[in-house]
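SEQUENCE WITH STRUCTURE:
===
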Amino acid sequence: MISFIQRLEDLAAESPNAIAISCGSDSITRAELIRQGYNLAVYLHKHGTREGDMVTVAVPNSIDFFIAYVAAWRLGATPQPISSRLPQRELEAILELANPSALIGVGEGDFSGRTCLPLGFRAPDADASHLPYVISQAWKAPTSGGSTGRPKLIVSGDPASFDETLPPPLMMDPGGCLVMPGPLYHNGPAVWSCQALLNGLQVALLPRFDAAGTLAEIQKYKGSVLYMVPTMMKRILRLPDDERLSYDLSSLRVVWHLAEPCPEWLKLAWIEWLGAERIFELYAGTEAQIATVITGPEWMAHRGSVGKVIPGTVSITDEDGNEVPVGEMGEVWMRSSRTTPTYKYLGATARTRDGGWESLGDMGRLDEDGYLYLGDRASDMILSGGANIYPAEIESVIQEHPAVKSCAVIGLPDEDKGNTVHAIIEADVAEVSEDQLKAFLGERLVIYKVPRTFEFVDFALRDDAGKVRRSALRAERLPKGH
């Protein structure tokens, strides 16, 4: 077991001029990444950052992100990524939790008592040999608003150490290339990118998601690993066929998708396009109590599943905490098989029950073979006329319509049924009408699941990581007093 820093030094010594990261027209070699990361570490140390501190990283997708991570790890500090576009109130709430000694990506002097460095800052050349080699006890501390919208930090239970005896994770082939179109302040994109870097892959990072641009990066760099969320998969699939099929994707070994439910029709379309053997799905929370993986061929035999669980790590219960029969939907409880915690919260308390079980609020069921199938978050479920309605199921069908760019389904108060199903649609109203959507959905959904009301908007309802805050959308549409 060696430190992340030792691993990066070893890779740089092996191939100093190999490209570590590319992002748009920028790129940086392994040796230069170490040099600039160490320069920043010396600068931060001089201004007070020490082992165990947090370093908040508030930069858009860029090489700066990785320089900041290397600097934090070199000091034994914990990088704490956030969106560079956070509203001030949410940013202040996160800083109160993290109490970082430094912030990267903000204006100089923006936060008194903390080192504040702008995007693009490059520390002067410096000798880092006087800095002791220490291992960050938590290698990352991303944030999550979850369904509540209240920020919390999820501090990793894993140190910044690398086990050279283990095979590369996530089908990361040394010498290959990860194409990353997702925002690095989200956990999945950061985990995949850091694992790629540590396992000797180039990271071809997109400044922001672009459907054709993602395919172009795969062709340009011979990408072997691709990270996707279903929102991205849909946008790529909606490219004109002559454009989408013009790119050479033969180098792709694996397409990983995660972070949000993937509609069956969308997954089938990608399997038909690229082959089932290249399509992999992973389910896990940032908390990482468990993780399931399902291959394309497995999924074809267990359609809709996110993978087979290790016996004793997942329990499905009703509202009273009683285990439900196989095949019945309930709340998903998880229990890590590790002896040490996988995470700790700052700003939140885990939902737990006796026996070491924890819940992230997901609903799901197990089949007789131990495969897990997910529903929606319990907090997002709509109770209408005595029926339990899961927004993700309706959203999946709405997204089949070619005119729909994104959508979100929420429940709004109704005197008769308790709640009524309301659909918010990002689409050009010149291309699809409410009546056309109702007819489209009526052919695919039981009548009580067809939204009663529709609202058309001209902005994306999911971010580039595939996340949607239904609770916030609902709160904006509730009458005052609710």
